[in-house]
Design brief:
The protein is an alpha/beta fold and 211 residues long. It contains three helices and six strands.
């Protein structure tokens, strides 16, 4: 009975010691194949089995790798990364650093070419200097700053236009108010004049009767 219980619990303990094959990937022993799965940098599995010796990530839509993704794979002997649109800006610094730490026998850097920015397109990532990568980061931040300034300028223009429209409306409202007040006063004055003329003959006739 105890032997049967241990046999049933063995898969559970085994699953805790060794992570399962990542979703949408195929695993054969210590080889993990995640190639041609349309993975992006955000949809890529966050971890791989600790004993992985071969990892295939080629022909996806990866622009960078999450920080620390490959650090725990100490048995890794082969990684394929070609066929991805790598974006060589600040986000690629982790992958560049990881590739530079690998031994010369590991050819993971082959095919890791920059697709963006245009000035670095086609260049091998490992051959880029840190200065070149940081300059691409600066280029990206400059674009962001320029867009922010344009948005701020447009916002100020809209606020100025709204303020001008409000001033015009208030002046028009003031003018219409004055005209309405003047029309009311003229109407009141015109209504008082016939009443004065109406009482004048009555006063004269009453004098004649008394006489």
């Amino acid at each position: 009975m105890k032997g049967l219980l241990l046999l049933c619990l063995l898969p559970l303990f085994g699953g805790q010691r060794s992570p399962a094959c990542p979703p949408l990937c195929s695993c054969h022993g210590s080889q993990v194949d995640c190639s041609s799965r349309f993975f992006t940098s955000s949809s890529l599995p966050t971890s791989f089995p600790a004993g992985t010796t071969s990892l295939r990530l080629h022909d996806n839509r990866l622009t960078s790798l999450p920080n620390g993704l490959l650090d725990d794979l100490t048995s890794l002997g082969s990684v394929s990364l070609h066929g991805n649109p790598w974006q060589c800006d600040c986000g690629i610094l982790y992958l560049r650093s990881w590739l530079l730490r690998q031994p010369a026998t590991l050819t993971s850097h082959l095919g890791v070419n920059c697709s963006f920015p245009p000035g670095l397109r086609g260049r091998l990532l490992v051959y880029l200097t840190e200065k070149e990568v940081l300059e691409s980061c600066h280029y990206w931040y400059c674009d962001l700053a320029l867009v922010s300034q344009v948005c701020l300028f447009v916002f100020v223009l809209v606020q100025a236009a709204l303020l001008a429209a409000l001033i015009v409306f208030l002046r028009r409202f003031e003018r219409l108010s004055k005209e309405a007040r003047r029309t009311t006063e003229e109407s009141f004055t015109a209504g008082e004049s016939p009443r004065e003329n109406e009482y004048t003959p009555l006063n004269g006739s009453s004098i004649e009767v008394q006489l």
